[in-house]
Specification:
By secondary structure, the protein is an alpha+beta fold. It contains four helices and nine strands. The strands form two sheets. The protein has a seven-stranded antiparallel sheet with strand order 3-6-5-4-7-8-9. Strands 1-2 form a two-stranded antiparallel sheet. The termini are far apart.
C-alpha cells in the first residue's frame, strides 16, 4: 500500500512566492519587510493556510475549495484551442484597489493565477514593469520584449529604483 500526502495549497503558496520574489526585485527588499506584507509571507511559509473543505464526488474523486485569500485561479476555463505546455512563465505586478497584486501564468499560460500580496502603501507605481517573463530552459528574462540575463535584469531593476529615489529627493 502506498500512501501519499498532498498539500492542495502548495501551488498557491509557490505562485505567491514567485510574485513576492519579483516584487522584492522590483521594489527592493526593504519595503517588503513591512508588517503589511506579513500575512502573505506567513501564507508562503505555510503558517496561516486554511485547510480545504474536501468533498467526495459521485465518481469517487475528492475535491476541495482552496484557500483563496491570497491566490485565485484566473481564467482557467476550457479553451477552444488546446495550448501546448512550455517552460516559460510570466509574472506581472500591478496595483489594484489599493493592493499590490500579481498575475502569474505558468506552463506557457495553461495555469493562470491572481495573487494579492498586500496593501500597496507607499510603493511607487513608476517602477512596475509592464511584464516580466522567465524562460526556465534558456535561463533568461524578457523585460519589455528584450532578452536579459539574471545580472542584466538585476541591473535594470536597480537602475529603475535608483531613478525613483533620485526623483523623490
Amino acid at each position: 500500500m502506498l500512501r501519499m500526502s498532498y498539500d492542495p495549497n502548495m501551488v498557491g503558496r509557490c505562485v505567491a512566492k514567485m510574485a513576492f520574489n519579483l516584487a522584492s526585485m522590483v521594489f527592493g527588499a526593504e519595503p517588503l519587510v513591512h508588517q503589511r506584507f506579513d500575512p502573505v509571507r506567513e501564507y508562503i511559509r505555510g503558517g496561516n493556510v486554511v485547510d480545504p473543505e474536501l468533498t467526495t464526488m459521485p465518481d469517487g474523486k475528492v475535491v476541495g475549495k482552496l484557500d483563496e485569500r491570497y491566490v485565485d485561479r484566473w481564467f482557467n476555463e476550457p479553451r477552444s484551442e488546446p495550448i501546448r505546455p512550455t517552460s516559460w512563465h510570466i509574472v506581472e505586478l500591478d496595483r489594484f484597489r489599493g493592493q499590490l497584486v500579481a498575475r502569474v501564468c505558468l506552463v506557457g499560460g495553461i495555469l493562470r493565477f491572481f495573487v494579492r500580496l498586500g496593501p500597496f502603501g507607499d510603493l511607487d507605481t513608476e517602477v512596475l514593469p509592464a511584464a516580466v517573463s522567465r524562460e526556465d530552459d534558456g535561463d533568461y528574462w524578457l523585460l519589455y520584449g528584450q532578452r536579459k540575463t539574471n545580472s542584466e535584469m538585476q541591473t535594470e531593476v536597480a537602475r529603475r529604483i535608483q531613478a525613483q529615489v533620485a526623483q523623490r529627493s
